[in-house]
Amino acid sequence: MAAARAMRNAYDCHLAPFDLNLNTASTLAYVDQHGPISQTAIADGLGHGRAATGTYIDRLERRGLVERLADSDDRRVWLVAATDEGRRLMIEVADIDKRLRNQLRRGIDRAERQMLAEILVRLKDNLDKTAAVDEDVNDG
Question: What is the pTM of this model?
Answer without folding.
Answer: 0.83
